[in-house]
Each structure stands twice: as C-alpha cells, then as structure tokens.
C-alpha cells in the first residue's frame, strides 16, 4: 500500500485537505475510496466531499499526511484486518439484519465489525463489492440456512409490522420504549448494542425506532452535555437512508416542542444549533434538510408548530444554501 498523500488547499474557513492518491491506497486495501474518506471525516470530526467524476476526495480543515496515515491505521484495523488471523485479505459482507462482517479469504473466518462506528451506516447505504470466491461461499451458506428453515415461520420485520394490528404495534413500541428508558437509566456501557438488538428482536422498523429514540436519548441540556455526539453512533445504525433522516427531523420537531422538563423553553429557540450538530455528525444531509425546510407538515406536530420550528431553523437552512453556492463557485 502506498503512503497516504495530503494536499492542503484554501485558507481561513475555506481551508481543506485533498487526498490525491486515495484511490491507490483504497485499491491496495480492496476497499472503496469513499469508505476511507468518510472514515477520515468521522474520526477527524470534519465534513467530507467526494466528487466521483474528478476523483477528488476532500476533508475539511488542514490535515497533514502523518495525521491521515495515523487515522488510516485505525480504518485498517477496524474494517480490513481479519480479527482472527490479522490477514488483510478480507471482504466486507452485509448480512441479514444489516450486520456487517469481514469474510477472510485466508483463514475463512467471518466475524462482525463494530456496528457502533458511524461508518457502518454509510457502508450499509453504499454496499461494497466482494470477490467471486466470497460471493459463492456466501450464497452457499445462505442457501444452506434457507433449507434448514423450511417449514418454519420467518417473516421479515416489515412483514411482521404489517401483520400485527394497531394494538399489537403499540404494545411492541411501548416495550421498546420501556427497554430503552431502563437501560439508559442503568447507564449500561453496552447500551447501544443492546438497543440495536432489542429493536431487531421486536421487528421494529428503523424509522419507528428513530422517533422513539429522539424522545428518550436527549434532555434539555442536549447541546451543553454534547449528547448528540455521544449518541451519534447509535442513531447512525437506524438512520440509514432518507426515510430515516425524515424520521429524525420529525422526532426532533416532537421533542423540541415538548413542554415537559423545560425542554421547549430550553431548546425551541436553538433548533438551528441542534440541526447543525446533527448535520456535523453526518446524520442529516443537505438536500433532506432543505426539502424539510421548504414545507411545514402536520405529520408529527400541528401545522402552526411545524412552521414555527422551520422559522427557528432558518439560520441553519440559510447557512446550507450559502455553503452550496460557495461550493458551486469553487467548482
């Protein structure tokens, strides 16, 4: 693998780092260059930009090659090396239930990666290519599992939701909410994994889980206590697509307009800052935010409240529009 290169461009608030040889580095690791770029962004707390047409991979801020190489070592450990034999000849595979595993072509191990890392959500939304050998082995294993399950009932979470009547769904969601409340109260160090597993066991749709989590993870001190960053990895597991982002925005509308525990008084005027914090953690994308801001909906709160929240969010939305115009001018 070639050593990572760094080229710093711009100055002031517009300073950014271009990684000119990231394609060569990623190819040596048998990983997508976008995975490496996004990993840099998550680890360095910086926004990233990928232009596939020009093959420009950009990380905001000034980062020298030595710093990038150090961060890249972490990517290799977490998403390349086999946990069993430490061989780099692995493929990433997305299993049922959105579990990501590293399939080792050297020793045959197929072990899960740590789903708490934010990059996992990006990988699930942008599945990796795998080698022919791994594809055949994976298909054979899946066929074997399907044969073993013949004659048993195995409906997917979405199918289970459709089959349950409204009362059953409410009961399931209540059970999940009670579980989350209890595990957060007990400050379980493995809370994130337990919450993911519980949602999967109950067959709860990701968007439903997001709505519930938005009401339970945060308090009126969510900004001061840096709660968004603390819970970002958990939310990334459920916010996998545009639908998940819309659910997060809807959950935020409901949360900040809640009168309990001084939440509305503390957060209503700070919606723009809250949205910026979610955006910085790459839980929200520009297009989704701008589309949300254009039209008030009464899906989560009444129309008047929805309109007021969008008005409070205008400084953030204006910043996004301005940033887009600046990027276009730079291009």
TrEMBL record:
Annotated protein name in UniProt: W2 domain-containing protein
Family, similarity comment: Belongs to the eIF-2-beta/eIF-5 family.
Compositionally biased region (Low complexity): 135-145
Domain W2: start-end pairs: 166-330
Pfam families in alphabetical order: eIF-5_eIF-2B, W2
Native source species: Physocladia obscura
GO cellular component: cytosol
Keyword Protein biosynthesis: yes
